[in-house]
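Pipeline run #58 for the internal structure catalog. This entry was flagged by the ingest filter as a single-chain record with no existing model, so it goes straight to prediction. Upstream metadata was stripped on purpose; only the residue string is passed forward. Reviewer on rotation: M.T. Logging verbosity set to normal.
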Amino acid sequence: MQIGFCFIAANCSRCLPKVLLRFLTVVGLLILGSPQVTHGQESAMGFKEGDILGFDRVDLLKPYLPQEFWAHRHFFFFEGMELEIGPGFRDYSNPPEWKSVTERFKGQARIGPGGSLENYTAGEPFPMAEIDCFGDPLAGYKVIWNFDLQWSGDGARSNFLYTYFDRGEQLTLYYQGQAKVIQMTGRIEPYYLGKNGGDIFKDDPKKTVMGIEVKEPFAARGLSALSYRYKASQNPPEQIRYDDTWIYQPDARRVRRFSTKERADAISGTDFSFDDLRSFAGIVPHYTWSCLGEVVLIAPMNTQKRAYPYSKDVDFGPFGLSYANDRWELRHAILVSSVPNDPEHPYSRKDIYIDKQTLTPLYSFAYDRKGELWKIIWHNHRWSEDDSEWYKSWPGIDRPRDMRIVSDTIANAQTGTGNRIEFWDSHGTPFDNKAKVRRYIDIGRLSQGR
């Protein structure tokens, strides 16, 4: 398969001259590559838009799925599934305001020492159409910085449900609540970009702020957290400022501050680490990044099934970890691989398939220190333009044109356990005034009124 050949070639780069390496890579793409499907060719693959594929026809999907996913398909495909084939390569491009800002600052951002990001203001730092995976040694960093800074409106606001599974059995442990993320810098609205250089509050050191409040179960009710990620997380490794997190514990009635340095640790006994959320939510310069090529994949892209908080009756398969009862679409994806710079990190590497147009993650695969597959992470998505009442526009943005992640699922290939996080109402419409933003990001909010 194309992807496997690209990875081998990338690992041989130290022993092959660059010209020979590129020649062999191109030959590999031609000989071993997955079909590069064009519009109108879907019927030649045995399926087309509008088809419903049951369990007896999943073999048709094999050429368009990562090998690791296919090898563990028992987690994801099941008797009774009804997988809808959606439109191939549909246009999910970002709003014109984002494109305009990207063009305005084009050519200014650059990769600095240690994979850091320099001279970035707003928009897409490195236009995807100009990134050369095989000719540019910094291509992996450029792709992942685009991923890190992708268009997401204000950030995110949602209700969430976090559930646990053990070899198909749903455990009683769960968390339910509300979450909000605010993009504090890199904003494209004219009233922020023109006056504050893209900051909500001029010269604020924060990059993003995330808040969480747990509503259920009763024993955890009232638990809340506020986390700051700083602009200095984009610095060279030795100059990085780590995230700060404050947690309100209702039983102790106090707020405690934590430095979120060990982001590779598991979250509350789950299979997720902090850096696994959204496939990668870590600090980019803590890893070495490689771009391994482009491939056509099929993946859940624009959900037709809405689970929590709309419904709890959606069938996620016998393991509770499947989106096979939803709409899937053919997409152009780009594969990047990360190797942790920390030799004590539990992963030896993680491979992430990113949708080339929207920069949302499709699949990722984490390997343990022995190089064996450990975790499979994948996602479902929702397109803002198909439901304007759910995701409203705001001053400065006429139409959001935002492809949202609305569910993260992780399967542990070694233990059979897994987790599903649902937040199907997630949207990026901001608060209607800056006073509300200021109050939300205030640490004192965690304990007020309690």
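catalog note: Residues 1-33 form one domain.
catalog note: The chain is about 15% helix and 30% strand.
status: ready for reviewer M.T.
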